[in-house]
Design a protein that fits this description.
two-stranded antiparallel sheet; 14 helices
Amino acid sequence: MSAAVPTAEAGAAALLLGLLLTEPMRRFALRHGITDRPGARKAHTRPTPYLGGVAVALATLAAGTAVALAWGVFDPVLGVLLGGAAIVCVLGLIDDLRQLGPKIRLCVETSTATLVVAAGGHPTVFGGAVDAVLAVMWIVFVTNAFNLLDNMDGAASSLCVVIGGFVCLTAPAGGPNGLGVVMAALAGACLGFLFHNRHPARIFLGDAGSLFLGFTLSSAMMVLHGDAVGLSGPASLLLATVVPTLDTTLVMLSRYRESRPLLQGGTDHIAHRLRRMGLTVPQVVRTLSVFAVVGCLSAMLVTYGLLAPGIALLAASAVGIGTVRLLFKVPALDTATPRVAVPAGAPADGVAHTALRLRRSGGSGRRHSAVRPMGVPHSREAPKVTTLSPTAGTPVAPQ
């Protein structure tokens, strides 16, 4: 059986489902008030619905399961992975509707990650239970790193398309776990969702979506490298997730250096700093995607034995340290001008006039911060101190 056929079927079916399901979910969210409302701590200035992540999850689970069953590549490991992803999606949805405490979130994420590691295995580096514990911790880390990374229109879903696509290439659909089918479905669902989530976004992933993406990707990669021995497994995992790893590292170091609470939201992510360097939202997303492509290509070379894992890790560490040091030079907080929430339908010239009045009068907005329960602040509730536009990630007039 050719692996390309079921992979293509899963990707196409998920893309179509993601494209079609997102709009009904958007209307449902608007009708029932499931929206992220504008405020002093948020980038957008109009109510924007959540539930985009639910559409992505439904498309991925439906297309991946149906195609895997049809082609006979569905096995218990795949069932555990998809079941765990569904649980994490529900966890995120509950957190979108009513905030959960950090203990509950960590408990559920750790439990589901443990089930995946127990069923699908993990790379062997040290031997014994240490490797299993590290594998669980890594899945939880990447899950929440994607939650952090969802801070700009199209960022998280674009990176998922890139990473999922490369994992699909290294996981033949006819293999024992059918990971290629699931990764194709995930990438296709995100691609369909991008038609609605690209800048300016009409709907957000929400925690349901960002946690689902992170958990599904990390779990699939862990199962894919479950038989790896030595540094090849960890090197491939790290290289494939270099962007979310660097983003989380930068944020934690930045807050530690500035004596700010680690659990406090902020505009100190890679995407925000790139915006302050003058890049537009689409340019930021493309830049992050290019970094992800380079990381995934390196991971593939390591997986196929064409690149020594030790050399790859040293090179990745050097690039990562250099990138973090460079981005540290970009202010984490934009103090140039405060932001104003723009009422729906307000004319652009009125916004500009308000900004001009505030600058002349010396008015300034007070900094606000939001605390997310997991220490993984959703971008829409982080303290938005940059000059951002009516939709997430765009320059707007100050308040």
